[in-house]
Amino acid sequence: MPLYRIREVADLLGVSDDTARRWADAGALPSTLDAGGRTVVDGAALAAFAVEHAAAAASDPAAVRRSARNRFTGLVTRVVADGVMAQVEMQCGPHRVVSLMSREAAEELHLEPGSRATAVVKATTVVVETAAGRS
Hints:
25% helix; 2 domains; Multidrug-efflux Transporter Regulator, Chain: A, Domain 2; 32% strand; CATH 2.40.50.100
């Protein structure tokens, strides 16, 4: 299992280095020291911690049950609309989400920079990548 340094842990969890270090120092995030004396976190322990401490998904204001599980609430940062289509960009935490929709839909939803929205993603194909040379 890979070991992650505190800086990497912080990046993966979307928190500051100080927060990740405090969690490790308090024992909330299991950690050890590597051969160089640096604090590291085992990948499996980090994955378990991430799942356990994940923010709750945004509630669905319509209270409708859906099969889509990937909901990203954030702020609209850009809307580019032409005659028929609109490209809507959102910042959802550390994630940039881009949606293409009809201009009519973007207008009906009143999407504009600064408005709050939730991107609901349902895909049959999800590409997973890893860094070269990392196990």
